[in-house]
Amino acid sequence: MDMKRVHMVGIGGIGMSALAQYYLTRGVQVTGSDREVSPTTELLEKKGVHVLIGQDVHNVPADAELVVYSAAVLPENVERARAAELGIPQLTYPEALAKATEGKRLIAVVGTHGKTTTTAMIGKILTDAGLDPTVVVGSLVSEWGSNFRQGSSNLFVIEACEYRKHFLAFHPEVLVVTNVEWDHTDFYKTPAEFTAAFDEIKSQSKHVVEVEQYKKEVVPDLLVPGEFNKDNARAAKAGVKALVPDMAEATIDKALAAYKGTWRRFEHKGVLPGGAELYDDYAHHPTAITKTIAAARQKFPGKKLVVFFHPHLYSRTRDLFDDFARALAAIDEVYILPVYAAREPHDPAATHEALAQAVNKQGGHAAGIAGFAETTQKLQELGPDAVAFTMGAGDVYKAGDVALETKPH
Hints:
Elements: E1 5-9, H1 14-25, E2 29-34, H2 39-46, E3 51-53, E4 66-69, H3 78-86, E5 90-92, H4 93-100, E6 105-110, H5 115-128, E7 134-141, E8 146-149, E9 155-159, E10 174-177, H6 191-203, E11 207-209, H7 211-214, H8 227-243, H9 249-257, E12 267-271, E13 277-281, H10 286-299, E14 304-309, H11 314-319, H12 321-329, E15 333-336, H13 352-361, E16 366-368, H14 372-381, E17 386-391, H15 397-405
Parallel strand pairs: 1-2, 1-4, 2-3, 4-5, 6-9, 6-10, 7-9, 10-11, 13-17, 14-15, 14-17, 15-16
Antiparallel strand pairs: 7-8, 12-13
């Protein structure tokens, strides 16, 4: 970490923006670019990083000693190509984060569901216990107002992603596995391939905490709703016990009971113009949808649940199509937006209209919806008998933000 200047391509990514903040705490001058403004780019601007919107060869400083790029940035990207011309070394986000954690006592959280909340909970427990960890988490944590917390101890807590086996860059002292359920189907072609990757990360970790261990933990009542969040708390508690065996159980429970949640995880956004409460949730896998809706039913008995679902990736929508249809059919009213393609080309076999039809065949009440403008309008029309959710790993939350700010026509 004796570098003076780093350039980051895709700096607004939830992990990339946290790593940028880490570099800042180490005295590194950080520059970066992204496709659009987002809450994370705005956060970085407030911390002194000028984020360039749009990709351009001139964005890359000639004196940069390293270029870090997100998984979504391909080799032909103009800034990566420029870095290659200048002979600047390049690392992926997980490779760069792994370098940052070298020599630290690392606790990493992996799994299909619950990684972000579990990571944040572990970070809070260690912080409240006075152990001052550094934490990199995949969302903005309420208490910190950021996805990053700088600590002075040798403890480092991270959320590690399984996509393209990125988590194999790490060799944790403690690995917490929240669960393993087939996902990222564009890379892992079968559930067996997916499970094998988790077996590999487990083999390079000193201590492993899995479902059969953490399910035995007893946790206090939480501020965040849902049985799935109790499981996240159990996983966090077991992970901390593995890392710090002599920590008092009361210390752990006090921290968990005070945990307030993170951005886009059952996040209350406000009251819509028509009187409906609006929540936002990152759920983008059938199981996550099912668990989130179960928590909503428990929290809002008697209310009509209306979900605006933004499918994320054609491959995931296609490969888990029937599971999505069953999960969405359990909701009172569903509006499905066009698939958020991200890195993938259009796939006519996995459209939002086809998914809406499949939901209706399962006995649900779904309709395809054109996009954000129509979403905003429908949100504003919902009355006080409804609770609305914008849901998905894309940017559907933006339609909800507009609906809260704009008076209905």
